[in-house]
């Protein structure tokens, strides 16, 4: 089954799924899902994601990526599909505190996981400091890679604080410094074809409280 | 409004809102993830199905047979459309190849089918079940081989000649005669081409990523052979274009055909690995440049020939364009030659012509400077011209190239530049390079509608697009300036073919033309307000939400008390572009470091100084330029669609194979705009910057690499393999 | 992507049994390479066994010295581990030179070893490829081969192995520890783990049907200066044209392995002994019998020069 069409809220998704419980009952998380109805219908499975703090139960074709689950089923389209192959970073979301490419992971592999998307970081009238810094420094142009850039930027500052080394860390036996050189290297998985990199570095430096 | 005499003083000159570095009014939506791009629109007339496009597996040939039965029987499949059941399809005015191929195949990954299913996953897997049998034809895929008998281009691309080039070149005491090559390049915008199509009866609505709404809507009607009034194209947010979304592409056609067959809305996005060959690209060039000069550096002969290829019926990459206008010189010639190639369709990519043309020309100028023993900044300065060198009776409307070069040299510390191969820091060889930037200013007719509501809100409606350029913001600034209201009192609605036709986003004409069109509409609104209030005659001043005429004053909102005031106008450009050469100018300065062991080149510093008329919003304009500089670094160092000359396709057709710059490639970038206002171009006195920023960057990087290494590479991109064996022995 | 059924494995042996007995079954862990390939139908499993819940995500000391890295340790965690950073710096350096931060957060140790080639012809299902479709031919030979292999290749395949991590593990003499469906375990020296293409380029590792990697063991730290030098066109987020992993002692002796040049991390023990003699001697020995193509012959020069850079850095 697929979710009902329309601008439904995440709460509605929950309701829809609950109503479908009779069908979905045997499809507990992690069970092998066998086709229902049509003999050759593709296998489905149930998964509960905690998206931006709200639990969302979805009944999905096992092939559904986390990215497509967010965009096409939860209707959170802030997370972008730029390449669908892990080559651009537009789909970056934060799962259980870590940034990942949501295009290269299956939704059914995220039972119970906490997913933070751009919509969960802040809202247009209550922006996250990183979102506000992107506006202030014009850290975008077309805006398509921007949600991924921002999710990555937030996570990158955490990674540096947590002492994760990078390719430009001079001495990997020591913590990495909070510099724009470190930020640039760590942000390199987020391509911006408009070329806002120089401004993004300034936005990040401002949030990190360091010199650009 | 007709613009046929230079602009006098007008309300824009106040520059209270226009010209200010306002942050983008669409910024909060974009950073919040709430700006809806083509594939994301939710308010549709029915539950959408998903379309997945199938591309040809051969570059040239014929589909002998096609078996779609397995796909049709696959779970969830609603429809399969191919040339056999699509109905009559024509070619759009702006396309070279058909957007739906079959039985004839014109290029690799030409769309041949769309599979529509209930879900994306079902559509994608069913698409793989279509079996096609092709008769493969021999094709021409090698520009160097096809160059030999490529004829001269015709029409506006025909050869030009002034004076006696051959004689002057032969007699010149200092000569450069070199050949340069630039590769095929891909726009690689981050948002793939995407469309949702929905039919209601015979009316078709498409939500599509498109830079030129009217061109797109027109070609959609033409391609599907339906009346233009039955088509509506909506494109409020475009995730990058760079010329790749100037025209109707296969996503629109396949979504429309799929939706018709499925009898419900259909969503189609082109898969990334499909884009390199299915869509357009910037064609490769082979360029021969001959420069002749006297010992004091005066250019006496300038010759530029360029070869490129395209499908039958396509056009040349006009790489000689800037050479007609950039430098003085009594004897000159240019020629474009066009070979027929069976590679995918070549077409405009950011600064078509000038971008690859300046990559070659500005390297040749650097070579001449070295041969003369002259500073390359000085060589460019002494060969400046204030008139069109081919038609000296035509002056430039405004030309401050020399100031760009000299001010840039000063700011960049150009005087510290040493002879090639002289500066080393550890394993890095350091060099500086310069190049001139030049791109013509184009103007296009542009219209807008303006509404004044009883609450005093000003609403702008035009089919103009914002592809990252900042259109929303500069339109709001223009309306606010004209109507004397704060930015918050302006609402801007863009990208809908039901709005007045605008210039669209292309050729760096968008900002100036579309704001000029809005200026015209605002002039009309001002007149309507004054008339409604019964003020006048006399000069009206609009400020602080009020209109003043003589000693009479009123809130502008009061004029709409009895109902919204709606006006519409457009700007049309007369022959000032013929009387005056209108161009934009700049100078790019680059410092690079080249690893003396591995030959890797990395950019350390970049500066652009631009002279482009009035800058409508320095923040957005600067972003355009830094973005273009970034693309220029890509072109200089890494970007190349690799041609497989046997199978006839671009091999590296995804973002892992086609490398574009990442964060780590780009240092802090400096941009300076000269304080200008060009009254010959429009009432806004502004010109474009989005393409100017790219022009010359590649050559500046290349010249810096030469300055670092002493090794000249004339074949872009300058990857390490091209100079590695000349960087000196290492043990 | 073809439809597949999905299950979460209950134990390592259970996973191995399921993989051996379920037709079309594959393990999935990080998924960053497998899903990429499934979307293009280069990989077409009909059943996925999710092994993420099996633990195997710890890095533990081995009695007598060395470290045991769980198969599911994410690349980020392996690179950031204090013991790895201190004693196996080449491994940290190789890991952080690979992919992007997002991918490293997901990609696992075992999955990294099992990455498939990035040959563009392997990635385009319209093209002949003996690795993707045995017997169909190799479009890369005579085609665009700039990224491809110069040694260890065959007339059936010139693909390279894309991993950075594996190159460091090769220089560290790691061994790959596995479990088989019958419950037995074994340790495969990394030198023997990846196989050369010969006439069977679709066979890429020594793993048997159902056999699953459970850990990778690193021997005792060998001291010395640890260097990983990756050469690429752009500064980050790109596969290596050539990479050099080296551990070099104060006496100039040590070990060196190369990435980007061969179907497996390329190390020739005889070349290690030549390190004190300089980069030319090492490169000549490493590339004896090389079969470069027109597009990638530069890799021989580049490899020698990169080794020279590494030797200079070790000396500094």
From TrEMBL, chain A:
SUPFAM superfamilies: 2Fe-2S ferredoxin-like, CO dehydrogenase ISP C-domain like
Highest taxon in the source lineage: Bacteria
Reaction catalyzed: an aldehyde + A + H2O = a carboxylate + AH2 + H(+)
Gene Ontology molecular function, alphabetical: 2 iron, 2 sulfur cluster binding; carboxylate reductase activity; metal ion binding
Keyword Signal: yes
The protein's Enzyme Commission number: 1.2.99.6
Pfam families cross-referenced by the UniProt entry: Fer2 (PF00111), Fer2_2 (PF01799)
GO cellular component: periplasmic space
Subcellular location: Periplasm
Main location: periplasm
InterPro entries: 2Fe-2S-bd, 2Fe-2S-bd_dom_sf, 2Fe-2S_ferredoxin-like_sf, 2Fe-2S_ferredoxin-type, 2Fe2S_fd_BS, Aldehyde_Oxdr_Iron-Sulfur, Beta-grasp_dom_sf, TAT_signal
Keywords recorded for this protein, A-Z: 2Fe-2S, Iron, Iron-sulfur, Metal-binding, Oxidoreductase, Periplasm, Signal
Residues in 2Fe-2S ferredoxin-type domain copies: 45-121
Enzyme class: oxidoreductase
Subunit record text: Heterotrimer composed of PaoA, PaoB and PaoC.
Described purpose of this protein according to its UniProt entry: Oxidizes aldehydes to the corresponding carboxylic acids with a preference for aromatic aldehydes. It might play a role in the detoxification of aldehydes to avoid cell damage.
Family annotation (PANTHER family): ALDEHYDE OXIDOREDUCTASE IRON-SULFUR-BINDING SUBUNIT PAOA, OXIDOREDUCTASE, IRON-SULPHUR BINDING SUBUNIT-RELATED-RELATED
This protein's name: Aldehyde oxidoreductase iron-sulfur-binding subunit PaoA
Organism field: Novosphingobium guangzhouense
From TrEMBL, chain B:
GO molecular function, one term: oxidoreductase activity
Superkingdom, natural source: Bacteria
Record-linked Gene3D superfamilies: Aldehyde oxidase/xanthine dehydrogenase, a/b hammerhead, Aldehyde oxidase/xanthine dehydrogenase, molybdopterin binding domain
Domain Aldehyde oxidase/xanthine dehydrogenase a/b hammerhead: 32-138
Signal peptide: none
Xref: InterPro entries: Ald_Oxase/Xan_DH_a/b, Ald_Oxase/Xan_DH_a/b_sf, Ald_Oxase/xanthine_DH-like, AldOxase/xan_DH_MoCoBD1, AldOxase/xan_DH_MoCoBD2, AldOxase/xan_DH_Mopterin-bd_sf, PaoC-like
Protein name (database record): Xanthine dehydrogenase
Species: Novosphingobium guangzhouense
From TrEMBL, chain C:
Signal peptide: none
SUPFAM superfamilies: CO dehydrogenase flavoprotein C-terminal domain-like (SSF55447), FAD-binding/transporter-associated domain-like (SSF56176)
GO molecular function: FAD binding; oxidoreductase activity
Pfam family, one: FAD_binding_5
This protein's name: Molybdopterin dehydrogenase
Domain FAD-binding PCMH-type residues, every copy: 1-223
Record field: transmembrane: none
Organism classification: Bacteria, Pseudomonadati, Pseudomonadota, Alphaproteobacteria, Sphingomonadales
PANTHER family: ALDEHYDE OXIDOREDUCTASE FAD-BINDING SUBUNIT PAOB, XANTHINE DEHYDROGENASE SUBUNIT C-RELATED
Organism annotation: Novosphingobium guangzhouense
Keywords: FAD, Flavoprotein
């Amino acid at each position: 089954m697929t979710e009902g069409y329309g601008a439904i809220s995440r709460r509605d998704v929950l309701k829809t799924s609950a109503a479908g419980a009779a069908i979905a009952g045997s499809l507990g998380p992690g069970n092998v899902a066998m086709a229902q109805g049509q003999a050759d219908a593709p296998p489905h499975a149930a998964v509960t994601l905690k998206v931006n703090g709200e639990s969302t139960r979805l009944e999905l074709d096992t092939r559904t990526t986390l990215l497509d689950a967010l965009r096409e089923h939860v209707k959170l389209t802030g997370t972008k599909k730029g390449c669908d192959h892990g080559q651009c970073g537009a789909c970056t979301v934060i799962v259980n505190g870590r940034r990942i490419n949501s295009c290269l992971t299956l939704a059914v592999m995220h039972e119970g996981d906490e997913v933070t998307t751009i919509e969960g970081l802040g809202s247009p009238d209550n922006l996250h400091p990183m979102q506000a810094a992107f506006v202030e420094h014009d850290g975008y142009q077309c805006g398509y890679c921007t949600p991924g850039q921002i999710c990555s930027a937030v996570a990158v500052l955490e990674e540096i604080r947590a002492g994760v080394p990078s390719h430009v860390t001079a001495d990997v036996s020591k913590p990495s410094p909070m510099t724009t050189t470190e930020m640039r290297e760590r942000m390199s998985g987020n391509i911006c074809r408009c070329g806002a990199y120089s401004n993004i570095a300034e936005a990040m430096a401002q949030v990190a409280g360091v010199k650009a | 409004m007709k613009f046929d005499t230079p602009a006098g003083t007008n309300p824009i000159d106040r520059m209270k809102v226009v010209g200010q570095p306002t942050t983008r009014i669409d910024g909060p939506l974009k950073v919040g993830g709430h700006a809806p791009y083509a594939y994301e629109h939710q308010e549709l007339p029915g539950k959408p199905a998903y379309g997945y496009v199938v591309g040809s597996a051969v570059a040239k040939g014929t589909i002998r047979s096609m078996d779609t039965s397995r796909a049709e029987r696959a779970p969830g499949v609603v429809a399969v459309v191919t040339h056999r059941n699509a109905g009559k399809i024509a070619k759009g005015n702006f396309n070279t190849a058909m957007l739906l191929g079959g039985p004839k195949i014109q290029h690799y990954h030409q769309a041949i089918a769309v599979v529509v299913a209930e879900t994306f996953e079902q559509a994608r897997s069913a698409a793989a079940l279509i079996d096609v049998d092709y008769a493969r034809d021999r094709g021409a895929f090698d520009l160097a081989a096809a160059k030999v008998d490529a004829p001269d281009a015709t029409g506006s691309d025909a050869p030009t000649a002034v004076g006696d080039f051959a004689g002057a070149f032969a007699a010149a005491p200092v000569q450069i005669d070199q050949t340069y090559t630039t590769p095929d390049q891909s726009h690689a915008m981050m948002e793939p081409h995407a469309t949702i199509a929905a039919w209601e009866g015979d009316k078709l609505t498409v939500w599509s990523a498109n830079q030129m709404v009217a061109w797109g809507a027109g070609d959609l009607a033409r391609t599907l052979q339906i009346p233009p009034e039955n088509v509506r194209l909506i494109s409020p947010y475009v995730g990058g274009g760079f010329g790749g979304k100037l025209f109707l592409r296969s996503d629109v056609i396949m979504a429309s055909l799929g939706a018709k067959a499925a009898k419900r809305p259909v969503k189609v996005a082109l898969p990334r690995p499909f884009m390199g060959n299915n869509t357009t690209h910037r064609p490769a060039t082979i360029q021969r440049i001959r420069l002749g000069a006297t010992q004091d550096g005066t250019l006496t002969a300038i010759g530029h020939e360029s070869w490129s290829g395209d499908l039958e019926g396509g056009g040349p990459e006009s790489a000689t364009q800037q050479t007609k206008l950039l430098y003085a010189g009594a004897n000159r010639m240019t020629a474009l030659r066009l070979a027929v190639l069976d590679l995918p369709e070549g077409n405009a990519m950011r600064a078509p012509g000038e971008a690859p043309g300046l990559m070659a020309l500005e390297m040749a100028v650097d070579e001449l400077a070295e041969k003369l023993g002259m500073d390359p900044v000085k060589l460019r300065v002494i060969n400046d011209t204030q008139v069109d060198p081919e038609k000296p009776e035509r002056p430039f409307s405004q030309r401050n190239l020399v100031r760009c070069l000299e001010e840039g040299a000063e700011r960049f510390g150009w005087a510290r530049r040493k002879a090639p191969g002289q500066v080393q820091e550890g394993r890095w060889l350091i060099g500086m390079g310069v190049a001139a930037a030049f791109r013509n200013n184009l103007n296009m007719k542009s219209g807008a509608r303006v509404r004044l509501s009883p609450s005093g809100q000003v609403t702008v409606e035009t089919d103009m697009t914002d592809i990252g350029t900042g259109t929303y913001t500069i339109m709001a600034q223009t309306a606010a300036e004209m109507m004397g209201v704060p930015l918050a009192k302006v609402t801007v609605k863009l990208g809908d073919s039901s709005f007045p036709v605008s210039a669209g986003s292309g050729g760096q004409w968008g900002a100036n033309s579309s704001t000029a069109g809005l200026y015209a509409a605002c002039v009309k609104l001002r007149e309507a307000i004054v008339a409604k209030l019964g003020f006048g005659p006399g000069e009206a001043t609009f400020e602080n939400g009020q209109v003043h005429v003589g000693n009479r004053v009123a809130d502008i909102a009061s004029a709409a008390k009895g109902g919204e005031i709606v006006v519409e106008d457009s700007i049309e450009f007369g022959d000032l572009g013929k009387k005056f050469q209108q161009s934009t100018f700049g100078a790019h300065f680059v410092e690079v470091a080249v690893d003396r062991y591995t030959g890797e080149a990395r950019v350390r510093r970049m500066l652009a100084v631009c002279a482009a008329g009035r800058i409508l919003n320095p923040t957005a304009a600067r972003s355009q330029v830094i973005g273009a500089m970034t693309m220029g670094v890509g072109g200089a160092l890494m970007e190349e669609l690799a041609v497989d000359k046997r199978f006839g396709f671009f091999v590296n057709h995804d973002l892992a194979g086609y490398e574009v710059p990442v964060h780590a490639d780009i240092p802090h970038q400096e941009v300076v705009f000269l304080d200008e206002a060009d009254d010959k171009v429009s009432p806004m006195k502004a010109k474009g910057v989005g393409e100017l920023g790219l022009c010359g960057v590649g050559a500046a990087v290349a010249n810096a690499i030469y300055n670092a290494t002493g090794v000249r590479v004339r074949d872009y991109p300058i990857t390490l393999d091209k100079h590695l064996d000349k960087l000196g022995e290492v043990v | 992507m073809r439809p597949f059924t999905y299950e979460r494995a209950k134990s390592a042996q259970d996973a191995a049994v399921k993989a051996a007995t379920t037709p079309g079954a594959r393990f999935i862990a990080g998924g960053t390479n497998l899903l990429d390939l499934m979307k293009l139908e280069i990989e077409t499993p009909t059943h996925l066994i999710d092994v993420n819940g099996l633990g195997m995500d710890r890095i533990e000391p081995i009695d007598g010295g060395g470290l045991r890295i769980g198969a599911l340790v994410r690349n980020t965690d392996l690179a950031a581990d204090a013991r790895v950073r201190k004693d196996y710096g080449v491994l940290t350096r190789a890991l952080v030179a690979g992919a992007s931060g997002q991918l490293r957060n997901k990609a696992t140790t075992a999955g990294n070893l099992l990455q498939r080639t990035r040959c563009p012809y392997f990635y385009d299902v319209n093209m002949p490829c003996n690795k993707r479709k045995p017997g169909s031919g190799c479009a890369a030979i005579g085609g665009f081969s700039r990224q491809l292999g110069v040694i260890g290749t065959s007339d059936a395949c010139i693909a390279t192995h894309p991993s950075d991590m594996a190159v460091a593990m090769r220089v560290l003499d790691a061994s790959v520890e596995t479990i088989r469906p019958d419950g037995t375990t074994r340790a495969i020296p990394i030198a023997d783990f990846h196989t050369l293409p010969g006439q069977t380029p679709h066979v890429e590792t020594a793993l048997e049907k159902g056999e699953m990697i459970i850990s990778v063991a690193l021997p005792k730290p060998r001291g010395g200066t640890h260097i990983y030098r990756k050469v690429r066109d752009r500064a980050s987020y790109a596969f290596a044209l050539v990479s050099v992993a080296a551990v070099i002692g104060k006496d100039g002796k040590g070990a060196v392995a190369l990435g980007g040049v061969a179907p497996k991390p390329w190390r020739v023990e005889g070349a290690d002994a030549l390190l004190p003699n300089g980069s030319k001697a090492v490169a000549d020995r490493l590339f004896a019998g090389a079969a470069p193509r027109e597009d990638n012959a530069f890799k021989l020069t580049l490899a020698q020069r990169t080794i020279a850079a590494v030797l200079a850095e070790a000396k500094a």
